[in-house]
Write a structure and sequence with these properties.
The chain is built from nine helices and 39 strands. With 455 residues, it is an alpha/beta fold. The radius of gyration is 31 Å and the shape is elongated. The structure holds uridine-diphosphate-N-acetylglucosamine and calcium ion. Calcium ion is lined by residues 101, 224, 226. Residues 101, 224, 226 line the site of calcium ion.
Length: 455
């Protein structure tokens, strides 16, 4: 929007979180609080400033495409905005002030708020809502339907003011010069010995500026996060919303309460998610996929009609169509499974490709391996890819059969259609269509056991 800049307050310590990190770095719905606020802000304006202070290096490293303002000591929300004074000297437009700890605010609501402010011809506007439990929030003292008198912080409120259900969201629009002028008149003679941004509202009203209060229908959207309990509540709400939108698009989720799905995850219709599944990051799941309980999937693609059984961990991997995985399989980064691959219990795969129709059903480790189509990997097969210094590749060509409990000591190549006898330690390449056998020959000592018992 024209003539509109955004200032996000994110310098505060997380005293009530009892955390060493800035509050806005904590996560809900899979994202840092500041990221949620930024996402909505970007719809409104490309000119975004963020006030940082407590663990500011970490906040700066976490976000991009914004300008930073340092607030050295955290002396309150008014003090935080004051830190931006020089940056906005000479700017006469509107300033939208957001709190880094109010993450559910939507871009749509911000847009209507800006319209309210501009159409009403206000010098300052505050977003409010009636809250079921206004505890902890600043209260809105009004003198009529659309105009406000002042904002009183909970800790400075009289018993009468505490009865007010209408809360301050911590989201405002100000005419910039009026804001900075009023800020210079704030004092810290209050319960918290802080410079309150909220005091600016009362100051502007006293100076006969027009101040609007924009009340939204539900306080949920302006929930602020001050404690770990608040964080958990907002996280649950975001996850419930995600599950609901997936269900609306045709995904069955048996127990949304115990299901954790990040906002950016995509799942195709008629897929079924069992209880206690976690799906994170940029995961993309096709149609008719089944994910059974206690599985955790991060940044992975799963093709249509695949099944992931219980207790699997999938990380940065890629599964084709009609793959079956688990129970108890682990895919580490860059595991690439072709269509109709079967990977079973206690199989770990890292940085390896398995061609169409290949099976590794039990107790195997495949690392740095390129495995062709229709290969059979027996139980207990291990690629010995690491010699203590470097990693080495294993190549297993199409149609090969690797017998149970064999070690493939890399670098090594098993040719097309070759057989490896069970229990082999393969150190040299095995040519196509051959048998590789590398184990001690069996000896029989007849009657040995019987003679021993006689002694
Ligand atoms: C603030 C409001 C309160 C409102 C509530 C909405 C004030 C005085 N009170 O209270 O009326 O109902 O938000 O959620 O403004 N921050 C800084 N520097 C500081 C202090 C805070 O950048 O020195 C940042 C924090 O990181 C946070 C935001 O400002 O993102 C709000 O601060 P917080 O201490 O959480 O204010 P509340 O007590 O919640
Ligand atoms: Ca807060």
């Amino acid at each position: 929007m024209e003539n509109l800049r955004v200032l996000i307050l994110a310098a505060g310590k997380s005293t009530r979180m009892k955390s060493k990190y800035a509050k806005v770095l904590h996560r809900a719905g899979g994202r840092m609080l500041i990221e949620h606020v930024l996402r909505s802000a970007r719809f409104i304006s490309a000119e975004i400033w963020v006030v940082v202070g407590h663990t500011s290096d970490k906040v700066k490293a976490a976000i991009a495409e914004v300008k930073f303002i340092e607030q050295k000591d955290q002396l309150g929300t008014g003090h935080a905005v004051m830190a931006a004074r020089e940056q906005f000297a000479g700017y006469t437009g509107d300033l939208l002030v957001l709190s880094g700890d109010v993450p559910l605010i939507s871009s749509g609501t911000l847009e209507t708020f800006v319209k309210f402010h501009r159409e009403g011809g206000y010098n300052a506007s505050v977003m409010t809502a009636d809250a079921e439990n206004p505890d902890g929030y600043g209260r809105i003292v009004r003198h009529n339907e659309s105009e406000v008198d002042s904002i009183v912080e909970q800790r400075d409120a009289t018993p009468e003011v505490l009865q007010i259900a209408e809360i301050n969201s911590g989201i405002y629009i100000f005419n910039a010069p009026a804001l900075f002028d009023a800020l210079s008149k704030t004092r810290s003679n209050n319960a918290q010995r802080e410079y309150y941004l909220t005091d600016v509202i009362g100051i502007l009203v006293a100076e006969r500026h027009r101040v609007g209060a924009f009340k939204i229908p539900s306080a949920e959207e302006i929930s602020g996060i001050n404690t770990r309990q608040d964080l958990a509540a907002v996280d649950r709400l975001m996850r419930r919303r995600k599950c609901e939108s997936l269900m609306a698009d045709g995904v069955t989720i048996l127990d949304p309460q115990s299901t954790f799905i990040d906002e950016d995850v995509q799942i195709g219709a008629d897929s079924v998610i069992y209880p206690s599944v976690q799906i994170y990051g940029n995961t993309i799941i096709g149609e008719d996929v089944t994910i059974r309980s206690f599985t955790r999937i991060s940044n992975t693609r799963i093709g249509a009609r695949s099944t992931v059984l219980e207790n699997c961990v999938l990380d940065n991997s890629h599964l084709g169509e009609e793959v079956t995985l688990g129970p108890f399989s682990r895919l580490r980064p860059d595991a690439v499974l072709g269509d109709r691959v079967k990977v079973g219990n206690f199989v770990e795969i890292k940085k390896s490709t398995l061609g169409t129709g290949t099976k590794s059903q039990h107790l195997a480790y495949l690392g740095d391996a390129t495995v062709g189509k229709d290969v059979n990997i027996g139980a207990g097969v291990i690629t010995c890819n690491y010699d203590g210094v470097a990693k080495h590749p294993t190549v297993i060509e199409d149609g090969a059969f690797v017998g149970t409990d064999s070690q493939l000591i890399a670098p090594v190549r098993i040719g097309k259609g070759a057989y490896i006898a069970a229990g082999s330690s393969i150190t040299d390449d095995v040519p196509a269509e051959s048998l590789g056998i590398a184990r001690g020959r069996q000896a029989i000592k007849e009657g040995w056991a019987k003679n021993r018992k006689k002694k």
